UniProtKB/TrEMBL annotation:
Domain of life of the source: Bacteria
InterPro entries, alphabetized: DUF5996
Species of the source: Nonomuraea pusilla
Annotated protein name in UniProt: Ava_C0101 and related proteins
C-alpha cells in the first residue's frame, strides 16, 4: 500500500462535502449525548480499524455507539444490550442520511436532539432539506480513510515525544481535520467576548499539530501547526524542511507543510515529524515552554529504561 497516496482536493470535493455533512450529523449526536470534557475532548471522532467511531455515549440504560465502517461503507449503531442497526452510506443525500439515521435511532429507543444545521460551512442548508449534497464515491472515501489512518499513526509518533498534558489524536468533524494538541501548562485567559467553543478550546496555552484535507481558501491537503495564543514573532521562526512555510490565518499564523511536498520525499514520515518538531520548538521557545523537561523520547519516561 502506498504511503500517503495522492489526495487531490478537486478530485474528491463533491464526495468530501457530502461526507463532511454526514460526519457533522453524527458528530452533533455525539455532542448531545456525551459527557462534556475539558477542551471539548468528548466531541471528536476516534479512529478504529475500519473507520471512525463516536465511542460509547448516552445514559447507562441506553448506552450506544455510532461507527462509520468505511470498509463496508455502512453506518452502524450498536447498543450495549446487543441490538444493532445499519445504514448504507453510498447513494444517500445529506437529507436522506439525516432522516435514515434518526429513523434508526428512534427504532432503537434513542431520542437524540441536535441543532440540525451545518457548523461553519459555506452552505447552511438544514440537513433535513439538503438534497444537493449527494455524492459518495466509495473509492475516494476509501482513499480518505487510508490517508487518515496513516496520518494518525504519524501523529501518534509525534505525540509520543511529549509527556505533558496532551490531547488524544482525534478527528474533528466540524473542521474535518485530525489533530493532537500539546499544552504548555499555563492558563491562557480566553477573552469573554470569544464564542463558547473557542473559549473552552483555548482556555489553556497550546501548541497544536495536525492535518487537514484542504478548503476553498487553500485547496490542497497539508500538515499544520499553530501556537495559541500566538506569541509575537512566531512567523519569523525557522521551519524544517525548506518546503514548510508560515501562512497568515484568521489574524494569526499557521506553519504549513503541503501533503504533496511531504509525500514526494524519500522519507515522508521523517519529513513530517521534522516539520512538526520544528513548529513545536518555535512555539515552545517563544512561550517559554520547557521543551526539554517535557520531552519523552519514544514515549518513555521510566528513568530505569533507555529509549530505543
Amino acid at each position: 500500500m502506498e504511503l500517503f497516496p495522492a489526495m487531490p482536493y478537486d478530485e474528491w470535493l463533491d464526495t468530501k462535502d457530502t461526507f463532511h455533512r454526514f460526519a457533522q450529523i453524527v458528530g452533533k449526536v455525539r455532542l448531545a449525548e456525551s459527557q462534556r470534557r475539558n477542551h471539548w475532548w468528548n466531541v471528536p471522532f476516534h479512529l478504529t480499524g475500519r473507520g471512525l467511531t463516536t465511542r460509547p455515549m448516552g445514559g447507562p440504560e441506553r448506552q450506544f455507539c455510532i461507527d462509520f465502517d468505511l470498509v463496508r461503507h455502512r453506518l452502524v449503531v450498536d447498543l450495549i444490550d446487543g441490538r444493532s442497526a445499519e445504514l448504507p452510506l453510498a447513494g444517500q443525500s445529506v437529507a436522506s442520511f439525516h432522516d435514515g439515521l434518526f429513523h434508526l435511532l428512534a427504532g432503537l429507543g434513542i431520542d437524540a436532539d441536535i441543532r440540525a444545521v451545518p457548523f461553519d460551512l459555506p452552505e447552511p442548508t438544514p440537513f433535513a432539506e439538503d438534497t444537493r449534497h449527494a455524492a459518495y464515491d466509495p473509492e475516494l472515501i476509501g482513499r480518505y480513510w487510508v490517508v487518515l489512518s496513516q496520518v494518525a499513526q504519524v501523529l501518534e509518533r509525534y505525540a509520543a515525544g511529549f509527556c505533558g498534558k496532551t490531547s488524544p489524536v482525534h478527528h474533528f468533524w466540524h473542521t474535518f481535520d485530525i489533530a493532537v494538541t500539546r499544552f504548555t501548562g499555563r492558563v491562557a485567559g480566553a477573552s469573554p467576548q470569544a464564542d463558547p467553543v473557542t473559549r473552552e478550546a483555548y482556555s489553556w496555552e497550546v501548541i497544536s499539530a495536525g492535518f487537514w484535507f484542504g478548503d476553498a481558501e487553500r485547496p490542497w491537503p497539508a500538515f499544520y501547526s499553530y501556537t495559541a495564543p500566538e506569541p509575537k514573532g512566531l512567523e519569523e521562526e525557522p521551519l524544517r524542511p525548506d518546503a514548510a512555510r508560515w501562512l497568515p490565518a484568521r489574524g494569526a499564523h499557521l506553519a504549513i507543510l503541503r501533503y504533496d511536498d511531504a509525500r514526494q520525499t524519500p522519507d515522508p514520515v521523517g519529513t513530517v515529524l521534522e516539520f512538526l518538531d520544528s513548529a513545536y520548538q518555535a512555539g515552545a521557545k517563544l512561550t517559554g515552554c520547557d521543551a526539554e523537561r517535557l520531552a519523552s523520547a519514544d514515549g518513555v519516561t521510566d528513568p530505569c529504561l533507555t529509549p530505543s
